[in-house]
Amino acid sequence: MPTIGFVRHGITEWNVLRKAQGLSDIPLNETGIQQARAIARRLAAEENWDIIISSDLQRAAKTAEMIAAQLGLEDVIKDERLRELSGGEIEGTTEEDRQARWGEKWFDLALGMETGEAGAQRTIALMEEIVERYHGKKVLLVTHGGIIGNTFKQLFPERVKTTFIDNTSISIIEKVEKGWSCLLYNCSKHLQEEKT
């Protein structure tokens, strides 16, 4: 059975400003590039990964490319199913913007946002393909916070109560007979180690 790792991309300016990114193709900022270097070094030191599959949005793709270079892997496979949840009309806005425009209950309005459940379902479908295609391999998925958080919340509802995921954190699961087993969740110790 394969082992699957999930890495959230490095931080962007919109993350810093707390703007909803969704499908907006925002690049890593300088801190995000440093974070991507840190997770790449950690993965090279701790794990052997066979395959990297990434969202095609540049913040994830750049993070994946930096990891692949450190691991000595030639190819990063891009898959649109690993894109962040679509934010619809809220993309590019802060919470304050949303409340000013649509009121305090903006999240109850039909603003074209993809649900967390829908994002989790497309990710789980990809995971099942990985099980069939890459039996016995270690596959790293470089994606987005909303995708990772909602997927883990759906797979491990007793353990995961919030969908927040740290930038460049790693979470690792493995396929078992009756579903999935979580080996590591939202670990970003490499960022603390960089500060010391």
UniProtKB/TrEMBL annotation:
Pfam family, one: His_Phos_1
EC number annotated for this UniProt entry: 5.4.2.12
Name this protein carries in UniProt: Phosphoglycerate mutase
Superkingdom, taxonomy of origin: Bacteria
Organism: Cytobacillus purgationiresistens
Keywords, sorted A to Z: Isomerase
Claim: Transferase is one of the keywords in the record: no
Example GO molecular function: phosphoglycerate mutase activity
Gene3D superfamilies in the record: Phosphoglycerate mutase-like
InterPro entries hit by this protein: His_Pase_superF_clade-1 (IPR013078), His_PPase_superfam (IPR029033), PGM_Phosphatase (IPR050275)
